[in-house]
Amino acid sequence: xxxxxxxxxxxxxxxxxxxxxITEKNIANTLKEIRIALIDADVNYKIAKTFIQNxxxxxxxxxxxxxxxxxxxxIKIVYDELVSLMGGESTEINLDKKPSIILICGLxxxxxxxxxxxxxxxxxxxxxxxxPLLVAADIYRPxxxxxxxxxxxxxNLPVFSKNSQNVIEIVKESxxxxxxxxxxxxxxxxxxxxxxxxxxxDEIQEIYLSCHPNETLFVVDGMTGQDAINTVQIFxxxxxxxxxxxxxxxxxxxxxxxxxxxxIVGKPIKFISNGEKIEDIEIFYxxxxxxxxxxxxxxxxxxxxxxxxxxxxxxxxxxxxxxxNRFNFEDLLEQIQHLKKIGNIRxxxxxxxxxxxxxxxxxxxxxxxxxxxxxxxxMTPYERxxxxxxxxxxxxxxxxxxxxxxxxxxxxxLKQFDIISKMMKTINMNSNSGQQMIKNFLSxxxx
Length: 447
Fold this sequence. Notes:
Layout: H1 3-14, H2 24-40, H3 45-59, H4 70-85, E1 100-106, H5 112-126, E2 132-137, H6 144-154, E3 159-160, H7 167-180, E4 185-190, H8 198-211, E5 215-221, H9 226-236, E6 243-247, H10 256-265, E7 269-273, E8 281-283, H11 286-293, H12 299-309, H13 312-323, H14 329-339, H15 345-351, H16 355-359, H17 368-377, H18 381-385, H19 393-403, H20 407-425, H21 435-443
Parallel strand pairs: 1-4, 1-5, 2-3, 2-4, 5-6, 6-7
Antiparallel strand pairs: 7-8
Helix pairs in contact: 1-2, 2-3, 3-4, 4-11, 5-6, 7-8, 9-10, 14-17, 17-19
């Protein structure tokens, strides 16, 4: 997700490395490269132009503090502009009513059925007291109902379906059924439709009026680029939906639609889906996504996902070791083995600051964690528990030979491990989400 944009922005910002002040001359090439990177990522050229103007106005003549360099200052300005472009803050879904009704709609093939299941799983996992019910309301696509049932069954999620061609009847009976069975969240998976099909557009309006959802989500295929934005704009004229869901961001999507969707349409992106597993769903946090785009990772989301895999006792043990600077390769190996259960490998990689540069040298990202595992497993137990002892060239050569990874890559991995350890140590161990880490990091890069 956003890999190409991240690489091009890093290249653009590298121009400022070593400079001690920002001038119109030395920033010109950087801004030009940033603009090209945004347009290549399928960002509308007018938005890219405005973005560059804003960055230029906020950077020229800006006094660089002695603790900073121009590159750090520009990164902070670009970060702020990216966050603003993506909507500023995350927007939660409304689950005030009981039962809460979530209407899920979108184009044909956008991934509505898969997302419906993912969201039901997400809500159930996030709040154990929640009892979601999936409603199979796609009566047109062959096997749509069966698909929903198969996905839901694997995650032990209930599905309401009815052998009827009257979708309004199905929706109304599902609400009655949910109340009877004490389901407090109803997720209605509707049929895909085209904006040019008046009959289908009239139907989604009827569904909306029949169930009065407190949350309507429009699902968009992230791989369709600017066409996705055009589609959302047309639909918004017919249906007043509350938020957008971007799917298939793990594919060949360039990411421009995700970056600019909120700004153009005036609706927040609430969720992103970036994989095939039912766990591959995230709340859309503009600040966290901006961090990933700029190659700074997303330690907050990373920690949250790690905590999902560890029990409370083990989590506290790891955090105590981090806070005392005793986090070692044994701990990293254990976390990697748990992380492989979470979901999309490429997405996890993007959350870890600096590690992308290591994986970028590997042939396939699918096997990226195996390379790190092979490095760690080629160490002796003593070396795994004492990372600082790996300054020894002889030790590194032996590990390189044992793991089949070059000595240069071993050095790079050790450097990234040191970065990870230092950044993880800045996390507030008493915080549920680790937000303090972001505050600490950004406080060092003042405006």
